[in-house]
Design brief:
Layout: H1 3-16, E1 42-50, E2 53-61, H2 67-75, H3 80-84, E3 87-88, E4 99-103, E5 105-109, H4 119-133, E6 142-147, E7 150-151, E8 155-156
Helix pairs in contact: 2-4
């Protein structure tokens, strides 16, 4: 067999692709994914202060995530592991619950004064609430804080 015939034979073999015929789309069911455990556990982003900067830390919750759940965890302060990694809070640590109502934007009510809080403390509350309410882009939304001394103007997350 000449080199020319061998090359032609190999080209013909490659073009026919061993007789495999094209097929249509075959339905194989849903795509694989992680187990859906919404309603039983969740994750929230809590904003603490690390090295003088506002930093979001992910924490698992025993229930689905909501603004009150996230704020209640925030107000309890950082865990021992988070503290060991440098996390601190500028908020008063309290076991009281935060509540949330809505009037176009979230209104967060807490049981301590908010008007004279340091900016980092205000940002901790604001960013945690907004990360839970609108996790994709907190900069486009605002929250009003209401404390025992009055309420703030609507605030955006400014880390």
């Amino acid at each position: 067999m000449s080199v020319r015939r061998f090359a032609a034979f190999m080209t013909l073999l490659a073009v026919t692709a061993c007789g495999v015929q094209p097929t249509g789309v075959i339905n194989a069911g849903d795509a694989p994914g992680l187990p859906d455990d919404r309603g039983t556990t969740g994750y929230v982003i809590l904003y603490f202060v690390i090295n003088g900067r506002l930093t979001g830390l992910s924490r698992q919750t025993p229930s689905s995530s909501s603004i009150p759940v996230a704020l209640d965890l925030l107000l309890k302060g950082p865990t021992s592991t988070e503290r060991a990694n440098g996390a601190t809070t500028f908020l008063p640590t309290t076991s009281s619950k935060a509540s949330v109502s809505y009037d176009d934007i979230p209104i967060v009510k807490v049981s301590f004064p908010v008007l004279d809080l340091p900016q980092l403390a205000v940002s901790q509350l604001t960013c945690t609430a907004l990360a839970t309410a609108r996790p994709s882009n907190t900069a486009d939304f605002a929250v009003t804080l209401v404390g025992t001394d009055g309420k703030t103007e609507p605030r955006q997350c400014l880390p």
